[in-house]
Amino acid sequence: MGRTAGTSLDAAARFLARGASGVWLRAVSRVGLVCRGTVYLLVGYLALRLALATHGRRGAPASSAGAVQAVTEPAWGRVLLVLLVAGLGAYALTQLIEAVFRPSHATGTMGRWRQRAVSSWGCLLYVAFCLSTARLLVTPAKETAGSEQRQDSDVTAALLRTGWGRLLLAGVGVALVAAGVEVGRRSVRLDFRERFAAAHMSGALATITRALGGFGCAARAVVFMLAGFFLVKAAVLSNSTPAKGLDAVFRSVASSAYGSWLLGVLASGLVCYGLYCLLEARYRDLTPGR
């Protein structure tokens, strides 16, 4: 039964890869990877600026929303925002395709379920991010600049008023910690060129790609686990104060001992992952199912 399902999925993947549909899917996937890399570069830049900021000076929000707001600052920022929304939607579609077709190439039942869970999580995450970014197109800039953290706190406080809300918040926190553990595992175990067209890469570029991917995933793992820990803590204490968005997580790191150095390392890792995503957009084999 499993082999029949795998054969059917392989046949469907080959059908999608042929002709114009394959060309369009690969183009959409590359645009999505470029936009994903751009977001990581912007978040890393804002976090690095926060780490380098002088004492008492407020940096720009070092979060995904803060990164998007940085894009909209120029006069032509609305055009970039539309492109970013389209690109994030494209990456969500890429993750959906992977959730359907990629697990058939994994080794063992556990490997297939892990691949399916990771790709499904990525799809849901980037759909949510795409929708929140699209909301900025119809929201005045003055409102979005100061409302992100307040809205997050209001939602968290509302969830903590009910038993099921605390369970949901704790579940999201555990999922973030688990995602961090998985990303950390990948930073050590993966070569980061498994699906790359290696024939088109020089040896030096391949080494750089491995270093960028490994360091970037390690930084992402730390960020995921910190965000998850704060959510679980908020759920256990029934207090929304410990719950922190991405910007607040970075500021907590910056306020700790040697915080500016630690935040600088995390920010550098996120920038490295953004560069890796750009290399992935250029060299990865984006044929459906591979």
Short structural summary:
By secondary structure, this protein is mainly α.
Distance between the termini: 22 Å
SSE run:
HHHHHHHHHH
Give the uncertain stretches in residue-range form: none
Q: How much strand content do the residues show? A: under 5%
Number of strands: 0
Gyration radius from CA atoms, angstroms: 20 Å
Label the overall shape.
Answer: globular
Number of helices: 10
The tally of domains stands at: 1
Largest sheet: none
**Helicity, as a percent range:** over 70%
- Taking all residues together, what is the mean pLDDT? 76
Structural class: mainly alpha
Any overview of this molecule?
- With 290 residues, the protein is an all-alpha fold.
- It is built from ten helices and no strands.
- The chain has one domain.
- Helix 2 packs antiparallel against helix 10.
- The protein is globular, with a radius of gyration of 20 Å.
